[in-house]
Every structure is written in C-alpha cells, then in structure tokens.
From TrEMBL:
The lineage of its organism: Bacteria, Pseudomonadati, Thermodesulfobacteriota, Desulfobacteria, Desulfobacterales. It holds the Pfam family ABC_sub_bind. InterPro entries: ABC_transpt-TYRBP-like. The keyword Nucleotide-binding does not apply. Keywords: Signal. The keyword Amino-acid biosynthesis does not apply. Residues 1-25 form the signal peptide. This is ABC-type uncharacterized transport system, substrate-binding protein.
Amino acid sequence: MKRPYKLYLLTAILVFTIMTPMAWASSINKTGPKNKVYRIAYIEGGPFWAFPEIMKATKNALESMGWEDKISFLEKDHFSPGWNSQNRAKLNACAKKLMSRTDIDMLITAGTPATEAVLKVNNNKTPIVAIGVSDPLKSKFVSSKDDSGIDNFTARIVPGRFERMFEIFHDVVGFKKLGLIYTDTDNGRKYTNFTDAHIVAERKGFEIISYSKIKDQSQAEDCLTGLKWLVENGMDAFFIPATNCFDWSQNDVKLLINFLIENEIPTFAREGTKYVKSGALMGFSSIDWSARGKYVANKIVKICQGESPRALPMLDPGMPKITLNIYVAEKIGFDPPFDIIAASDEIFDDITLPEK
C-alpha cells in the first residue's frame, strides 16, 4: 500500500530561496470581454505522458477561475504528428499551417520539437505559450531567464533545476559512475540533461558512462540493450531520462525498472513521483500538476486580457522536494541517510505501476 508522508524538515542539500512564482497572478480578473470565446490550438511532436497531465490541470484551473466558457480547445485544433523521424516533416508543415491561420487566438506548443518547429515559422503575431519544454534557455528559445526576446512567446523556466538533480543524487548515493541513455541529437541530449550531468560530474568528481545508440522512437527493448551495456561497463547509478522508451504510456517500462532493481542500481527519475512510485529509487517530488496548471492558465488569461506574452514572468523557482521509495532502497541494498528521509516530501513503501 502506498503511504506518502508529508515531512518538511529541510537539509543542507535542499537550501533554496522560497519564492512565490505566481504572485503576479493575483491581479487576474475572473471575467473577460463579454461574449468573446478564445480559440486555442495545440501542437506536440508526439504523445508524451506529461503533456495531457499539464493540459488537464490547465483546463481545471481555467474552470476554477471562471474561464471555462471563454476558452475553446477543439479536437480539430489538436495536432500530434508522431515521433517517427518521417513525421518531422509533418510537424513542420503543421507548425507552418498554424502560423498562417487567422482564426486562432493562441497556440500552445508542447515539448521541445513542437516549440522549435513553431518558432522557426513564427508569424510574430499569434501568442505562443510553451509547455513541457525541457530547457528553453539551452534550446535558445528565449534570450534570457527574464526575457523571451520574442513579443508573442512565453515559456516556463526553472533555474538550475537539472543541475540540482544530479547534485542531490550524488550527495545521497555517492556513486562513482553515472549511466546516461540518450539519442545522439541535440534534443536527445537535452532529454537526458547531458550538459548538466557533465557540469556536475566535473564539480563532484564522478564519471559519466553514456549509451547513445537509441532512436527517438526506441522501444523498451532498445533501452534494455543500453542498460545491459552500461552495467557491463561499471555503471553504479542511473539517471532515468525523458525518452520514449521510458514513457509508461507507450512502453513496458517495468522491463527496464526490474532490470535496474535486479542489478541493484540506484536510480533518479527526472520526471519524479510517477516513476518513484513505479520503482525508481528517488526523484524530485513531481509534479504538482495543479500548480503547473494554474501557472499556464494564469498566462492564458493574462494574454486574453491583452498582455504581451513577452511581458509575463517565465521564472518558476519553486523549491525542489524529494520523493523516495524505501521499498526499492531495501531491494537494492541501499540504506538512505536519515536526513534525506526527513527531507522527503513523499515516501513510498511499495511499487505501484501506473495505469496506461
């Protein structure tokens, strides 16, 4: 049985500034122009489990703000070409078509590839709200953490989040050889936070072992081959990336998790709670979808009320919280330090697989 415990004792590895990134939203009115229904289109490179979670939370937030009847998300305005390499041309074509339309009031781009495709053909008029983008700064979608540099574009930036993941993981586990799996492309390296891992590795003095032979559309079996190679080459910890073969909605991730547990490999899940519940050792407690939904909904409403997307705050410096699976810790022979247990926002004592 799952038993999450709310514990708020923070340790030295979790000393960050507490801020309220959405304080600016307090001025939002619950009403907009009378009889106006804003039509919002949506585009993603392909399905990924986090995208519908963000959209569901966003729609719930809009409803709670009294805007559910003022926003239209039509199925015919939802575009998802697919992750196969041959679909990249379709994604670019969809982006170009959307930017040429005059019947939509806003566009939501989900993920790095979709956002990249749209910005390449940006008409500089239709407001664009990016969600689920790994790192807008490293992707060069924005000019800085404080300014998108594009009048009709806004995104969400969590400063230093990914470096903190690797730092905390190493502080807790003390591994010597961290394994990474990724597709050998710019986006593939972003999904596994390749640059952040190497920055922290140099700082902390651990080695990184990489396997880059998977493709964008790789299946669990492809990543299993990579995991076996990493174990054979001395990996003693693994970072679970945001790749398709680790997407529970598309693949048998249990195959990969079981292999890692059987080989007593500590794991840190980039996508957090869902993966820790399902067999990862630890991750950032994620994701408070209601807070993420409010963040996106507030931007949508502000834009509908006439504000420029570029003028909206992008920083979301919320303090990270840890989620830990003590059942997995026992299975792999790892004794978590008391202070990390005390600092954990969520603790699970079994493995619960997600519903597809």
